[in-house]
Amino acid sequence: MLKFKTWHELYEDSRSFGQKLADRVATGMGSWTFIIWQTIIVVIWVILNFVGIIYHWDPYPFILLNLLFSTQAAYAAPIIMMAQNRQNDKDRIQAQKDYQTNIEAKQEIEELQKRLNNIEIEKLDKIIQMLQEMKNKS
After folding, report:
1. CB under 8 Å to 8, separation ≥6 — which residues?
2. Which of 19, 44, 103, 125 is the most buried (most CB within 10 A)?
3. Would you say residue 52 has pLDDT above 80?
4. 92-101: which pairs have CB atoms within 8 A and are 24 or more residues apart?
């Protein structure tokens, strides 16, 4: 059986490796799982640097932690923007496809309306003809 792909499937198939990776990163960073894990790591980082008896690799005010956050933000922002731009493109394609579907549906409805009007006219013509025949007989 021949299966036709939807526009969405065709769009997904046309994405490059980088686009797919950016979408996955944006999806991951925009999740509660990411926020929870990042919070756990930060809490452990701070506790180990406050309580660390022998070695404090990042003493207060946690400059290394701030550097890591800055680096993460510097890479995350453009990746998330790429994913958002792609989502906007996808939404535009969806809107265009919806518009085309609506135009086609409108044309079909108009055609059905014409056919129904023709059927109604034909029935009325038959009724008028039958009435005239009855009038002529009497």
Report:
1. 90, 94
2. 19
3. no
4. 93/7, 93/11, 94/7, 94/8, 97/7
Residues 83 and 69: their CA atoms lie apart, in Å, by 20
Distance CA 58, CA 51 (A): 12
Tell me the C-alpha to C-alpha distance, in Å, between residue 83 and each of 13, 28, 61, 68, 87.
Answer: 16, 12, 34, 22, 6
| Greatest alpha-carbon span in the chain | 121
Cβ-defined contacts of 56-64 (< 8 Å, 24+): none
Which residues fall within 8 angstroms of residue 41, CB to CB, at 6 or more apart? Answer: none
Q: What is the pLDDT of residues 23-42, one digit of tens each?
A: 888 888 889 999 999 999 99
**40: which 2 tokens?**
């756990």
Show the tokens assigned to 53: 């008896």
